[in-house]
Every structure is written in structure tokens, then in C-alpha cells.
Amino acid sequence: MTSRRDRLALGILLLACTAGLTGCGQRSPDVAPLERAKGELASGHAAGAKFILDELLSEGAPAPALAAYFGEAALARGDLEEAARWLDPGNFSEDTRAHGLRMQGQLAMARGNLPAAGQAFDRSLSLDPGSAALWVDIGRLRYRGGEQLQALEAADRAVALGPQQAVALQFRGQLSRDSQGVVPSIRWFERALAAQPGNLDIRVDLAATLGDAGRAKAALEVLRGEGGQAVGHPRGEFIQGVIAARGGKFSLARDFLERSGLGKEGVASALLLSAIIDIHEGNFDSAAQTLDRLYGRQPDNGRVVDLLALALSRGGSEAELVHRFEKRAAGPAGSNYLRTLVGRAYEAMDDRVSASRFLDLAAQGSRGLSALPISGGLPEERDRIRSAIARGQSVDALGQARAFARQFPGSGDALALLGDALLASGNRDEAAQAYSKSAKVRKPWPLVPRMASSVNGKAAARYMLEDFVVANPMNGEAAAMLSDAYALEGQWTRAAALLDHAISLGHGRVPWVLSARSIAAAHLGESEEALQYAIAANSLQPMNQSAVRALLGSLPRDQLEARAELSTKLRSLDRR
């Protein structure tokens, strides 16, 4: 028989073995420090988590029980080599195996090996099918792989499994921002932050979204919350820089941007902000260099193209501007702003014939479908289909677009291209269906006018524009276009308010916006304002038909000679 002392010792030994993370024979880590490390990781404090894990390891905790968390901390810091050292061997304790496999999947995604990521996530899912965080990872993988509709399904499943889990709510907010707009996504980020107030990543996501919704004060309050750690976070500094730039404080914006360090890291949004600051400060050569670097990475980004063209124009590089962007300006992807810049560059080069051609194109407004931005790696397929549309080969374009959509049935980009091909072939109903499915994934502004043109009835089109403007109040072009819809209905007060909003957002040098504001002022009985807006529009683009009409309509009746000249000019423009 064993003694009472022997039975007690045996009971303690058995307790140690069953409570251990790796079984009897290895010392288990202290639960409290491990939970603190996991909490630090969940809050985005990778350095703090690593410190705790290092302490546990030095005190004798078994490496397999900590490997998954060491790998997670390294991934959060962007140290893939360190992450691989802990994750590649797959030496995880039984209790942490599902989490370790999930981290292996994240590492594979970071390396760009999507099939390996999918295999790791599948193995993790077999061990822990109820993990909301894992479904978030699966959703991110699907999104990167072009299965964007399936990514949305994964996000919804993550929220269903973890309705109070911050990472699931944050991911759903990010998808909502893409598809529904900045304002609707705010509530998701607010819920995520309420679930985990110490998470810096979620805090800056919410602050950035509030800033993009025009709520600068609320954005700054969020950054300063929970001890103000987000204020000094690189993304926090960047957000403050964007807010300062929007307020016209460009020197302060530069200070915030430099403190963020994101420009030196080559982050695209930081490069764009740096260039905008340079343009406003008159450093056009510097702006052009930065934008050229960004253009090399994002050749389809119309805003980058327009800003680069502006920097070249202001910097006196008209020949380079023409050489680089003449072809784009002449095609469907060219904005009216780019056409104007190319036309003025030709004027500076004393080529009046070429200048007139591009200025006329700009005065006529957009023709056809411009290229939608592509979120994935599918530019070649997009270009082939768009080229067929531009050449009027609608049957060929539609066949290619249908095949492309079948190949990538969950891709919002493929659905948008299918909508373009259907619209070009005259099939508005099917185009509307394709656009609607695409918008569930991502609804950038260029998609909205297409959606509006595919539906039946002006009221339905106006509703789409209203929905977008409410969700994205800082989009001046959308506000201006919605004003057009109100003007057609005779709602001049609303139209004028939207045009004033668009002008405040930087559209004060867009001729058709100023012309529309002139017409709205005239209908509201504001004759002096109508004349001033019309004069401003004509000074920007004298050959713009809408600007000429606005000036003709606002000139006093007794200005007979000027009115006769404008009438002759308008008849000449109408014949073109």
C-alpha cells in the first residue's frame, strides 16, 4: 500500500501532467503571463508580447507551447525570418496546434504562397471549426485570391461565430468600407473598438474612416483615447497629417508625415500625401519625382496620373507631359482634367492645332466608359476587354467578359467588367445585375455612374447617387453629379448646396461645376453670383459649351454686343 504522503505526491504529479500544455515531463508556462502575452498580441502590441514570451522561455516554459505565439508576434512586427524560425517546423503543443497552423497560413500569405496558406487554414479549421479569427484569415485569403464574394461570406460567418470578437468586426468593417462607403463602415469599427479598446490597429482604422467621412474632430478624439497611444502610432501620425492637409495646413501636414515614417517606407498613401503637399508648396519637381515613383506602381490610378500631369505642367515640363500622357488623354481612360492639361501644354509649345483638339475633347466631357480601377492582379484581362469595348467590338468584348466572369465567379472586378460589356452591347438589365453583384464587394466612385446609367428611371438613378454621397460625403465629384439630378427636377436649392460642397472639396476649378453653379444661382434669383461663377468657368475653359451657355444666360440683357458674340461662339461649338 502507498502511504498518504505518497498518494498526495502522486496526485500533485498527475495534476501537473494533466494541466501542462505539452504533457507530463515538461514544465508548463505560467498561465497568467501567457494570457497577458495573448492579450498583448490581440491588442496589437507585438513587442510587449515578445517580451513576456521571452521571459517565459527563459524561465523554462516549453518551446512548443510558445512557438505559435512567438510566430504571431514576429508576423505582427513584419519579421518573416523570425516567424519562419518558430512556425516552419510545426513543433506546436497539442493545445496550440490549431493556432500554430493558422499562423503558418498567415506566414504563407505574407510570402505570397496562397495555396500553402489555404492548406494550413484547412488543417486549422479541422481542429477548430468555431474560430472566428480563423474565418477572418480565410476571408482575407479568399479576397486576395479573387474570391471576393466568398470573402464576404467568410466575414459574415466570422461575425456570427464571434459577434463580440474585435478582429471579426474589424474585418467586416473593412469590407463594408469598400462596398458600402465610409459612413456605414464606421459602426463596425466602433463595435470592434468597444470590444477591444486597447487595439491600436482598430483605433487607427476608426480614426482614418472618421477622417475620410469629414469628421476630423471625432477622428482626433479617437486617436487621443485610451491614453493617447494611437497619436504617436505611425498611422496615427499619418491620419493627423491628412487632416492638417485637408485644413490647408501643409507645413503641419509635412511634420506629421515625416514623423510617421511611412513616406520613407514607400507606403503609397504617404507618397501621395507628400506629393500633394509639395504641389501646394510649389515644389513641383519634387512632387513629379514622387508621383512618377507612385505611377510606376499604380499606372491605372487616375488621380495619380492627373496629379503627375499637374506637377509636370506647373514645373514647366510641357514636352514631357505631352510625351507621356497624350495617348491616354485622347482615349477613354483620360479625364477631362488631363485633356485640359495636355491641351494647355500644347499651347505653351505653340502648337495651336493640337491644343485645340485636346481642349475640345475636354469641353465635350467624358465619352464612353473610363477604366475602372482593378483591386487584384488582373490588368491584362481588363485591358483586353476594355480595348474591345473602345473599338466598338461589343460582341467580342461580351464573349471575353462572360468567359472571364466564369473563370473568376467571385471577383467583383470580373463582374464590373461584365457589366461594362453588357452596357456597351445595350443590355442594360443584365448590366445592372452584374454591377449590383460587383458593388457587394467594392463600390468605387467610377462604378456608380455606370450603375445609374444601367437602371430604368431618373428616380432610381438619383437614389443611387444619393446613397453614395451620403455614404461618402467627401467625394466632391459625386456631390456635383447628384446636383445635376436635382437640377433636372428643379430642386435648385439642393443643387446649389451640393455644388457649394463640391467646390469646397476642390472642384472650384472644374468648368462644368462652376457653370452649373451659375445656372443654379440664376434660378435662385442670385444674378450677380450667377455672373461671377460663369465668368470663372469661362476663364478656365473658354471653349467649354456649358461655360459659354452659363455666361450667355447670366449676362445682363443690355449687353447686346457681348451676347451676340457668345451666341455666335456657341453655335460654332455646337456644330463641332
From TrEMBL:
Alphabetized UniProt keyword annotations: Repeat, TPR repeat
Gene source species: Qipengyuania soli
Write the protein's name. Tetratricopeptide repeat protein
**What InterPro entries does this protein map onto?**
CellSynth/LPSAsmb/PSIAsmb, TPR-like_helical_dom_sf, TPR_rpt
Where does the record place its TPR repeats? 98-131, 132-165
Source taxon at top rank: Bacteria
What phylogenetic lineage does the species belong to?
A: Bacteria, Pseudomonadati, Pseudomonadota, Alphaproteobacteria, Sphingomonadales
Keyword GTP-binding listed: no
